[in-house]
Amino acid sequence: MAVQDISNYTYKDIFSLSVVEFEKACVVNRPEQVDAYSIYWIKDGKGTYNIDFKSYNFDENVLFFLSPGQVFSVDSEKIKEAYKLTFIRDFYCIQTHDKEVACNGVLFNNVYETPFVKPCKNDTKKLSFIIESLVEEFKSSETAQYDMLQSYLRQFIIHCVRIQKEHYPIKTDIESKLFKDFSILVEQNYKTEHSVTDYAKRLGVSPKSLTKNFQKANAETPSNFIKNRIILEAKRQLIYSNDSVKQIAYSLGFNDSAYFTRFFTKATTKSPLQFKKNY
Q: Mind listing the domains of the chain with CATH numbers?
């Protein structure tokens, strides 16, 4: 978003709300790596955003969600009214509240499918009320402000999960549950575990059974799933760190940097250094 005409509200650098109310076109070509959980609500506007090297067009009322580590940039945008909520794990832990809120892997920590939530008129009314309440609470200095702000954020996230579930019902069959459990395990361990056998063992199934379940869920193979997650992180580090290819290879669990280079080149058709230079 353009930096002009934005009102910012912050609580101890762990939770913030930015309010944008203007109509102006802007272009931001420099990608940035997200360092906190972020919710963007484009209430009135349109544009094209790049998230993790993929381009997404949006028009009018839409929400989308970013997790720490994801790469974000703006190709173009024209915003009349928008909001950005940013928080760190110390303020609201996605994993801790997942059982009651069910947003982990649905709204956040889902690098495989960036969720775009489109609220209807009634949803917009509810979300707008929460935003107004947040602004009022940010401006106050009453007792238990932390708890009130966290409560409003939680309500906002719950409403978004409900909207998402309404349009894209979350499957509860065995294949879908196994896919989610596998994706969460990969997200937690892809830097140290690259073998499908390792993940299958932790899930209590055989590698063959895991692959068959993926086929039933119309998902890519487990091995490709792991590979694509490693490649995504490699791209992020190539662009947003000053580490050498050897250092990046080691951080991703490769003891042989030459093997890592072949692995990356085969997946992207470019060597790590070529990718960094071209990007």
A: 6-167 (2.60.120.280), 174-278 (1.10.10.60)
